[in-house]
Each structure stands twice: as C-alpha cells, then as structure tokens.
Amino acid sequence: MTGRIVIDLFTTLDGVAQAPGGPEEDPSDGFPYGGWQAPLLDDTAGERVGEGIARLDALLLGRRTYDIFAAYWPTHSGVDSPIAEILNRVPKYVASRGTPTLEWSGSSQLGPDLAAEIARLREQHAETHVIGSVDFVQSLLAEDLYDELNLWVHPVVLGQGKKVFPDGATPATLRLLEPAVTSEKGVLLLRYGPGGPVRTGDMDKPDRGL
C-alpha cells in the first residue's frame, strides 16, 4: 500500500502562514506578527490537530521548522504530552540545500531529487506529515507531491508575510475531502486533495466549465 504525504498548515484569511506559533519563529523580512495563532486556539482545533498527529508515522520538515521543532520537542520528552511522545519517536526527514546538523534523534536529510525522495517516503511510511515549512511546501505543491492539504484558516488578516499561495504559485485545482470543520473561535479546517489542472469556462454556458 502506498503511503500518503499530508501537509498541515495554519493560515490567516489572507493566506499568510508565516510564524503562527511564536514571535521568534520566523521574523524574516521584518515580519511583526509572529504568534498570531495563539489567541485563536481552542479545544476543537486542538483535538483535531492531535488526531492528525496521532496518525503520522514520519515527519517531513523544511530546515527552519526543523530547527524550531528540534529545539522544543526533545525538551518535552517525559512530559505528559502525547504529541511530544509521537514527534520524538518517529523518523524525521529534513529538506535543506545546506548541510544542517541534525541532532534530534531519528533525523536525516533528504537527497536532492525531491520526487524520488517523496516516492521513497511513500514506500516506507503509511502517513508522512509536513507541518508548517511554508517555503518547502511551495515545492511540494508545485510538483504535485502531496495527497492531502489541511488548511487551518484563522479569522485574522495580517496584510503581509509568507503565503501558502503567493503570486506566481503553480496553477492547480483542489478537491474538498470533507465538509469544513469550524472551531469555537471561528477557525476552519479545510481538507483538500489535488484536483487536477485549472479549467476555465463561461458563466453563460450550461456546464459553466465544471
């Protein structure tokens, strides 16, 4: 059975996915809103995030997100946290053009051929999750190297920052996999799969290009 590549991203209404977790997470380009997600956390969102992490058996991260996770989660080993137990236990794969020092137990670097490496992960793992890593996610989306994109859309507009779909993103359609889940604080979970190439149509024609 071929494994799945699942992307988990936390975004604003205007598509910004930069530094949701804290002020120092990614201040590049002078981004002033690090930690914008924290005031919007609630039980429903937390439970669904936990359910997703419980299913993963491998973690795939960009270099910046890996460094953040590697500095945080190992220090929570032994704490009563199911998420910490899972992330510290599973294999971690890092996408980087450099030669990073990978001290988090179970970590290794992807090779330069991304498509071949993703195929290898599909063979070795049932469900590999990419969490955050918005720069790296651009490559996965552009090359259609994913099976599911979970967008956690938060009711906040920032007007700046790295976006999930920036100008110049590869054109594509997405297919909704289930009805949206809404949390108490207005966060939407939208689960999408690849939907194929973009089609156009004419609103005056019966099929409307659908």
From TrEMBL:
Give the taxonomic lineage as stored in the record.
Bacteria, Bacillati, Actinomycetota, Actinomycetes, Micrococcales
- Per its record, how is this protein called by name? Dihydrofolate reductase
Q: Where is the Bacterial bifunctional deaminase-reductase C-terminal domain?
A: 5-178
Q: Name one Pfam family in it.
A: RibD_C
- State the species of origin: Microbacterium terricola
